[in-house]
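Two folds, back to back.
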Amino acid sequence: MGIHMLAELWHYWSSDNLLDVPAFANLITKTRFNKLPDNIHCNDNTKAVPMGEAGYDRLHKLRPVIDALNSCLKDVYIQLSVMAIDESTVPFKGRSSVKQYMLMEPVKRGYRVWYLSEYRTAFVSQFDTHSGRSDTHGFSSFSLGERVVLSCVTHTSTPIDL
């Protein structure tokens, strides 16, 4: 799909000669391909903390991937002492409990991602997705901005002077 890009997903199984991709259609059926997202898991659902209890994480299913990426990012880049914390919105219009609506932003709906990056190269050394009202880092008495900064500072491998 990355090499031969088509406008719609179902075009890969089309019988039209202009859209036909035999290598892809012979590899996997459309029905089997559509079942993949339902069956691929990154975390054990039986270990999830129930909603409403302390330690509940809306991103439980993706947390191992986020943690692994953050770990790899720290290993491949030597951070300087001057870092910046910023946010981005990943556009998304589908249904999700993690999706944010921000009226005054250019991207109105999407995932809000906070990241720690080196100020010269903008290399991201840590990121996390805002998942709503949760106190996963133990900074419940602080505002959202303060919690994000403290969370990023306490999880970095390089000490940052405040």
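---
second:
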Amino acid sequence: MRPVNLIPPDERGTDRGAMRTGAVSYVLIAALGLALLGVIALAFTSKQISDRKSEVTKLQAQEQQAKAKADSLQAFANFRAVQEQRSSTVTSLAQSRFDWQRVMNELARVIPSNVWLVQLSGTVSPTVSVQDAPDIETRGEIQGPALEIVGCAPNLDAVAGFVSSLEEIDGVTRVGVQQAQRPDITAGAAAAAPASDSSQATSTECDTKAFIYKFNIVAAFDAVPTPSAATTDSSVPSSLATTAPSAQAASTSTPTASTGG
């Protein structure tokens, strides 16, 4: 049997119209759902942006507070910098000065009675140049303060005793003898200067007697810090002239050997 549609023809299209209307409603519902999700996402994003702006504002306020506090403490920082600079300056000045007065006082106390000096120079650095100072090569090997001494002695034992005495000076770390020898003289050279002329009684040589030794000594103060910038002004007299050897030195027996270097 064939199925027979009992619905009148004019009413048969109503079902198809209802079906088309139902599909459109589904599309509208989906669009509304998507719009709702967009609104929710927009609201969430706006809230995040608002939170970030609030955080930025808070951090800016904290920055202003920290800056104001730093500005209020800047005066103390400047004072601290000035204090450190002055302390550094005082330390530098203290290290760049050497107590030559004490050294000269001790040197005067330790010089033996049979030894006399003809030249004496004290410098804080080998780069310092002093007019009429002794030219002792070993001075260049000492970077700190040092005494350069040229003197006369009746024998090598007196030179050795003077070296031992120099080592007793406070601050002296080593004493070097560059040379200790008798100069070659003749009777004519010894009588070259008139005895009556007092201006000729002083000399930088030791050729007054045939047995007199001339020595070059350097006393180093290695433990003293080397100043950053030394001046060219002499710290002690560049030379020291003394009179002819005393009777005690002249009466000392003549040594039988000599040494050099």
